[in-house]
Design brief:
With about 475 residues, the protein is of the alpha/beta class. The chain is about 45% helix and about 20% strand. The strands form 4 sheets. Strands 1, 2, 3, 4, 5, 6, 9, 12 and 13 form a 9-stranded mixed β-sheet that branches. It has a 5-stranded mixed β-barrel with strand order 14-15-16-18-17. The protein has a two-stranded antiparallel ribbon with strand order 7-8.
Amino acid sequence: MLSRGLVFLAALLAVPFASAEPAAAPAEVAAEVAAPAASPGAAQKRVVVIPVQGEIASPVLYILRRGLKQAIDEKADAVVLDMKTPGGALDVTFEIMEALGKFPGETITYVNNEAISAGAFISAMTGEIWFAPDGIIGAAAPVMGTGQDVDATMKMKIVSYLKARLRSISEGKGYRGQVISAMVDSDYELKIGDKVLKGKGELLSLTASESAATYGDPAQALLSAGTAKKIDDLLTKKFGANGFVVTRLEITWSEKFAVILNKIAPVLLGLGLLALFIEFKTPGFGLMGISGFLCLGIVFASSYVAGLSGHEPILVFAIGFLLVAAEIIFFPGVIVAALAGLLMMLGSLVWAMADLWPNEPITIAWSGDAFVGPLQNLGLGLALATALGLALIRYLPGGWFWDRLVIGSVVGGTAQFSGGTPEAGQGAASLVGERGVAVTALRPGGQVEIAGRRYEAAVAVGAIEAGDAVVVRARTDFNLIVERVET
């Protein structure tokens, strides 16, 4: 049972939650544009393609954040957003825009074939916007989650903020700031030179050809950096035939499932920590240990899917657990190893849930709110574990489950010699050198049976399993000190 549980947990943590397939660029190019050939011996550009498709919600944020961090780790040259969205949540949109701003390489949006509402905001954040021939972008006015119009006063505040933010990210990008503002604000008039492209009272939407139309002197495209039938054609036009290598990510069921798991992270933490505590208090290793590791493993796995962490927190947790185990088995009472291990285990849980970026100094993350949510989740988890633990003590004594946590049998003889009769102390002293058998596991304390009677006992170094032969080496005021008899 233990081996099956550990294998399942290992598979859960090891299986990737999104496919990333390297694909070489095709040799053929779009017929309407002659693609430049890659220079002989030139290094191929590394490109990561991330889908931004369907409603803008947490699953899209998860895979985009994880894809951007992967691209940074792999030193990718460019990230392409494969966009086909009708819009979505504004708060998630802002998180996506913030994440895009942390990628140091080139960012490109490929409108395939719509970037409506929130999709237009995200597109404006990237360095270039390319279009499929039937691509459409626009109609970015804020609405409520139900699709209804926002209150007039609130709408005015949101639109003002959005326009200011869009202006800040569109500086030096031609007409982009004006165009996106016309998509956000129906009262904004888009006028270039003497030509009015959008009057007041409507929201701007553009087709691929309209986005590619040029204005001004020198002539500049209104919004588009180019038109391509597919992403490979786009990359061929930019980097040349065979001048790039692509890694493609896909949204799978895991991103959608991780949304639920991350919302219940405090519950999983509380149940996992409580289960591990119970496991330490019971002999052997069984269901509680497997359940505890499984709960915490799900927290680590869901954080990885959400793009919050890599595999490093899992390694730190494992080292911390080994230190705690070493304290219990080999160095009982020293405390230092157990305390260090416990801090590493709790710290790794916070680390796993924190939104940390590659090469970002920890001081920057700490000065922000990267650790606020994780610390809150851990605090709630510890509170839940404590409350459930107290409930177990209050309501479960006398049941079969409680019998696994405590020693239910009566000790024959004086269990604690301190305060007992002189005869009891002398009887215990005479047991030094006697042999018996461990009735329970000694880690380090438990019970042994000698000459048909049970005594409280402890092992000085290591642990003794139930059923092992023991010999008494000494006694204290409270128990016997025993060693395993090597057979």
